Structures are given as C-alpha cells and as structure tokens.
C-alpha cells in the first residue's frame, strides 16, 4: 500500500469516527423501559459499574445490587441506617457506601460482603473515588467538612480525615490531578480543595444559579456542570478560574448532573431530564426528556448510551409536604439514545 493510500484511509477513519461521535451527541433520548424492582426503603444516588453492568442503589438501611441489563436483584448489602451513595474502586475490588448516620461501609465488589465499617462524620452524603490520590471523598453536610478515607486502608482499623469547607457540602467531583470541587448548598458556592495540601483554595459563586446540589466534571476541557435549585439552572463553570461560562434553565428539584463526553445532563424531581451541549461555542438545551416524577438522581453508561434513574410511584401530596412513595413500587427508569 502506498503512503498516499494509507494516508487516505487514515483520513477516512478519522472523519468516520468524528461523525459517529457527533451522531451520538445529537441523537434524541427517550424512555426505553423501566425495571420494577420493589423492596423496602427510600432511594438516593444511583451508581453504575459499566464494566460489569451492575447498578448500586442505596435504599435507606440496605444497598441493592441490580443487574443493569435485566433489572434483577443480584445482592442486597445490609447494615446501614440512612445511606446516600456508593463509590467504586474497581482496581481494589472495593465499594464504599456513605451512611448519613456517620459511617462509611466498605464491601467486596465480587462477593458483596461487608469488609468493615469506618466511623465518619454526621450526614456523610455524596461520595466518590478519586483514583489519582487513592482517596474516597465524601461531603458531610451537618459537619461542614470534606471527609477523606484511604481506599486501600484496612476497614477494620481505618479512620477518616476531614477538611473544613466553610459551608454545607452536597455533591462533589475530582479532576484527577489533585483537586476536588464541592458544592456548598447553603453558601451558593463551589469550594475548590487541594487534596494534597488538604486545604480550600477558593470559594467560587455559582450565580446566577443558587442552592447548588448536583455536580459533575469534564476533566478534558476543565468544566463543571452544576445543578442548581434556587433558581433552577444548570451552570457550566471553568475549573481553571471559576468563571461561569453558561447558565441554562432546568426543571424543579434537580439532584444530579452527569457528563458523558458529548452532552451534560440534569435530572429533576419533577420528572424531567435536561440535556445540554456546546454548539458553535455556545451552550444550548438540546432536549428536555419526560422521565418520571421523583427521578431526581441518575448515572450514565456512556458506552451503551443508557441512563438509569431511580424513582417510585407516589401518593397524592398533602399541602406543604412532599408526596410519599407507595410501598413496593420502587423502580429504575432506563433512557436510551435513538
């Protein structure tokens, strides 16, 4: 094969790959199916293990492990009091469950057996794993601190460290280069944390958004996607200087955001998912998908182009109160891209 022909084939492959990426980014999202799981307890953050096609769903006092393709329950991890989220460290074979009662439960990813429980701070909530530092990171809202735990520590003797944030944390993200970003819901700010120096470097306002809760990151282009409740906005912020690059309208009751490499998403309690993307240098709402009431958190499998949102059927709400979930109606709504 001549050099000219080889170059032509390479150019065709590059163009095809680019067009494929654009097609994925531009396809519409829609509800494909729902897994009717049932079981007792509430629900909060859902976490997917894309490699093994498993979903981890905290249900207040226990955490369900669900097959992401069939919706069948694989295992049920007991022993929590008021759980919130799950972080996975695949190379260590460990999972970590945040318990708002003041602990982090460590379990085995193969057997789902509990390895130990580490004492944490009150209201230990959103939780992630930062592979670059080898740390489990969790926000403790009532304590106003970022909790850190060495992921490879012996869970029977390990202890947490904490970093004062100057506000009440909600969800968080890490850039893979030693920094963490934490939403401070009560301050309308994002706290920038140097994990090696163990200190807050800056507090960045999320205005014109407010009451930030959901958070995700594009580590390649250095951007945060911040889900705000008051007012209801999805804020795009630079991780280099805290500059707000865009703010777009979303539904009521956002709790999570995600970035899949092409688009950003905000899942809202009212039953909508807002999809945004950057076109010609400007951020635009590409689609608002009707999901299900209560579907406020999510996780995404970028490879299979599926989004998983936990929710339930609800009773009619009383004045001034949130509607209560009907017993046994817990489900996972699955979105796919067409």
Structure description:
It is a single chain. The chain has one helix and 28 strands. The chain is mostly beta strands and 338 residues long. The protein has one domain (40-337): 7 Propeller (Methylamine Dehydrogenase, Chain H). The strands form seven sheets. The chain has a four-stranded antiparallel sheet with strand order 1-28-27-26, with no helix packed on it. A four-stranded antiparallel sheet has the order 2-3-4-5, with no helix packed on it. A hairpin with a 4-residue loop joins strand 22 and strand 23 (264-268). It is globular.
Count of alpha and pi helical runs: 1
At CATH level 3, the topology is Methylamine Dehydrogenase, Chain H
What is the class in the CATH system?
Answer: Mainly Beta
* Approximate shape: globular
Radius of gyration: 20 Å
User: If you average the pLDDT, what whole number results?
Assistant: 93
How do the SSEs run, as a string of H and E?
HEEEEEEEEEEEEEEEEEEEEEEEEEEEE
Q: Quick summary of this structure?
A:
With 338 residues, the chain is mainly β. It has one domain (40-337): 7 Propeller (Methylamine Dehydrogenase, Chain H).
Descriptive labels:
disordered N terminus, four-stranded antiparallel β-sheet, mainly beta, 1 helix, 338 residues, globular
What is the element layout, followed by pairings?
Blueprint: H1 3-26, E1 29-36, E2 47-49, E3 54-58, E4 63-67, E5 73-77, E6 83-89, E7 94-99, E8 103-108, E9 114-119, E10 124-130, E11 135-140, E12 145-150, E13 161-164, E14 169-174, E15 179-184, E16 189-194, E17 199-205, E18 212-218, E19 223-229, E20 232-238, E21 244-249, E22 254-259, E23 264-268, E24 272-279, E25 282-290, E26 299-301, E27 306-311, E28 331-337
Antiparallel strand pairs: 1-28, 2-3, 3-4, 4-5, 6-7, 7-8, 8-9, 10-11, 11-12, 12-13, 14-15, 15-16, 16-17, 18-19, 19-20, 20-21, 22-23, 23-24, 24-25, 26-27, 27-28
């Amino acid at each position: 094969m001549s050099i000219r022909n080889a170059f032509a084939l390479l150019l065709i492959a590059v163009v095809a790959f680019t067009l494929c990426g654009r097609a994925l980014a531009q396809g519409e999202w829609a509800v494909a199916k729902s897994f009717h799981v049932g079981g007792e307890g509430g629900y909060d953050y859902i976490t997917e293990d894309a490699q093994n096609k498993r979903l981890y769903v905290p249900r207040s006092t226990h955490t369900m492990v669900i097959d992401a393709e069939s919706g069948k329950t694989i295992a049920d991890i007991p022993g929590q009091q008021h759980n919130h989220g799950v972080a996975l460290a695949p190379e260590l074979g460990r999972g970590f469950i945040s318990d708002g009662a003041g602990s982090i439960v460590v379990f085995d990813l193969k057997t789902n057996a509990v390895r130990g429980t580490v004492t944490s701070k009150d209201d230990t909530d959103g939780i992630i794993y930062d592979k670059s530092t080898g740390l489990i990171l969790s926000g403790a809202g009532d304590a106003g601190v970022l909790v850190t735990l060495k992921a490879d520590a012996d869970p029977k003797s390990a202890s947490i460290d904490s970093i004062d944030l100057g506000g009440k944390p909600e969800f968080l993200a890490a850039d893979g280069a030693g920094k963490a970003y934490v939403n401070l819901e009560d301050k309308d700010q994002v706290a920038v944390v140097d994990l090696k120096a163990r200190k807050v470097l800056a507090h960045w306002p999320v205005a014109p958004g407010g009451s930030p809760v959901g958070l995700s990151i594009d580590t390649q282009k250095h951007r945060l996607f911040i889900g705000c409740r008051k007012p209801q906005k999805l804020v795009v912020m630079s991780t280099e200087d805290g500059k707000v690059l865009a703010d777009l309208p979303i539904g009521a009751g956002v709790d999570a955001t995600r970035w899949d490499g092409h688009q950003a998403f905000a899942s809202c309690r009212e039953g909508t998912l807002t999809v945004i993307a950057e076109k010609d240098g400007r951020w635009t709402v590409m689609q608002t998908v009707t999901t299900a009431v209560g579907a406020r958190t999510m996780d995404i499998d970028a490879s299979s182009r599926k989004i998983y949102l936990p929710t339930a059927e609800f009773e009619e709400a009383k004045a001034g109160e949130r509607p209560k979930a009907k017993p046994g109606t817990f489900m996972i709504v699955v979105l796919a891209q067409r």
